[in-house]
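Quick illustration, no need to memorize.
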Amino acid sequence: MHLKKIRIDPDKFPVKDCYPFNLKVFQGTREMEFHSPVTLFMGENGTGKSTLLRAVVHKCGIHIWKYEKRRRCEFNPHEESLSIAVSVEWADGPVAGSFFSSQTFQDFSQMLEEWAAASSGILDYFGGKSLITQSHGQSIMSYFKSRYEIKGLYLMDEPETALSPKSQLELLRVIKATAGSGNAQFIIATHSPIILSCPEAEIFSFDSVPVQKIRYEETEHYRIYRNFMADPKRFLQEEEPE
C-alpha cells in the first residue's frame, strides 16, 4: 500500500453551484480510506468518479500526458479544480506512478513516437514496438505489461474502453499479479464487470452519498450483465432491469 487515504474538504470549494463542486457526492463525502492494493470506483456517468480520480492524480504529482486543449464552445473554469479541496495521505511517503485513460493514451503514444524518432531505444521500455503501429487494444496491453512492472501508484480511468472482453481478462491478470507482488497499488474507475470482479479489491460506489463500499455482487453492473445473460430476450422487453 502506498496511498492510505484521500480527504475532501467542502470548506475549500470555491463555489457550490458549479460542476464538480455541485455534486452531492463531493459535498457529502469527507474521506476514503484504502485497505487493498486494488481499489475500484464505480457509478453511473456523471457521478464524479473520474473527476475525483484526476484530482488525486494531480494531488499525487503524477503527470497527465496530453496535447494542448482544443477550443470549446462552453468553458467551465472549475472543471478540473477539485484537487484544491482534496488532500492525500501516504503510507511511507510519495511514490512515482502514472495515469491512464484511453484518450490521453493516444496523445502519449504520439509523443512516444516522436521521442523514438530521435532515440529508438526508448521503445524497449514499452515492449520494444511502436505503440501506434499496433491496434489500439494491442498497444494498450503492451503499455500495461511493461509499465506496471515498476513499483508505483497507478490510476486508471475506464481502461476497458478499447479492450475486448478477452483483453480485459488479460488486464485483470496483470493487475492481480502486479498488486500481489506488493510493489504496485491501483485505483481504477470502471464500468467493466470483468475488472470489477478483481479478487480482494475494494469497490466504492459513487451512486450513493456519501461514497459507499460495496460487494461485487451488489454492483448494478454485475446485476445487469447477470440478468441479461440469463435471458436476453426477456431483458430487452422490460422497461427497467430488476
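The radius of gyration is 19 Å.
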